[in-house]
Design goal:
Among the domains are: about 75-165, Nuclear Transport Factor 2, Chain: A, CATH 3.10.450; about 165-255, Roll (Nuclear Transport Factor 2, Chain: A). About 30% of the residues lie in helices and about 30% in strands. It has helices spanning about 5-30, 75-85, 90-95, 100-105, 165-180, 185, 190-200; strands at about 35, 40, 115-120, 125-130, 135-140, 140-150, 150-160, 160-165, 210-220, 220-225, 235-240, 245-255. The termini are far apart.
Length: about 260
């Protein structure tokens, strides 16, 4: 009778070796996961961690600086202010003139358009003129320019005196200022005494103002008479000349205008 023990021992060794191999395979690869009717094998790949260092560089910002232009010619400073005034651009005007000069200039009517005549030296300053030869009222704009060629020039003051080409225009300007109840405007065409006499003496309805009758020559100037309601008589003494212009020097209100 044969003895089977060696065969059984050999088979046992083979089974143990196979089990060890299976365990090794299962250790290196995860088991399959069932999803529905199929089988998805999940493989975990080795990961590597990479650390990147970002160096922040500070960019230098170049911001434009707003600087006023340096103007080495007084006539050019006056021209730039004049052009800004005509364009109604206060910000541009403030680049070449003081705030006070800009305010004075922009308070003036831009029409009719003055034209440049000259800049004359009044060292260390200059006066630049823009004229309206045929205008009544503001007949020139005088710009006072200060500074120097190295530091630049700026307009620092504005003068815009009124000149009336004839006696009737001065008288009308004064009466219109009375209609508007504007003594400051009246002073542009008359003396303070004349303005006070007109305001104190004329009590007529401003909605129905007097009308100019005539301006006739008299000693020392012209007498401009007005027709008013309620039989009031108004006479204005206007003095001056064609070159300097005309101004109302005195006012006489006769009769009760109430």
């Amino acid at each position: 009778m044969q003895r089977p023990q060696p065969v059984i021992i050999a088979l046992a060794v083979v089974v143990v070796m196979a089990a060890g191999a299976s365990a090794a395979l299962l250790g290196s690869n995860p088991p399959a996961t069932a999803t529905g009717s199929g089988v998805t094998t999940t493989t975990t790949a080795p990961t590597s961690t990479t650390t990147s260092t970002t160096v922040a560089s500070k960019a230098t910002e170049t911001r434009p600086t707003t600087t006023e232009p340096r103007i080495s010619d007084p006539a050019e400073a006056a021209k730039r202010l004049f052009d800004a005034w005509q364009a109604g651009d206060r910000q541009r005007a403030l680049q070449v003139a003081t705030p006070g000069a800009v305010s004075e200039l922009f308070a003036l009517d831009r029409r009719p358009r003055p034209r440049f005549t000259t800049c004359r030296s009044e060292l260390p300053r200059f006066r630049c003129h823009y004229a309206i030869p045929t205008a009544n009222g503001v007949f020139f704009v005088d710009m006072l320019v200060a500074g120097g060629a190295s530091a630049g020039y700026r307009v620092v003051d504005i003068a815009a005196p009124l000149r009336f080409a004839n006696p009737a225009d001065a008288a009308r300007h004064l009466m219109q200022a009375w209609v508007d109840d504007d003594k400051d405007e009246a002073r542009k065409a008359a003396s303070k005494a004349a303005v006070d006499d007109l305001w104190d003496g004329l009590k007529d309805d401003r909605d129905h103002p007097p009308t100019l009758a005539a301006c006739t020559p008299r000693e020392g100037g012209f007498d401009c008479s007005w027709n008013a309601r309620h039989d009031a008589g108004i006479s204005m003494l206007v003095v001056g000349g064609a070159s300097a212009g005309w101004m109302v020097e005195a006012v006489d209100v006769v009769g009760d205008s109430d």
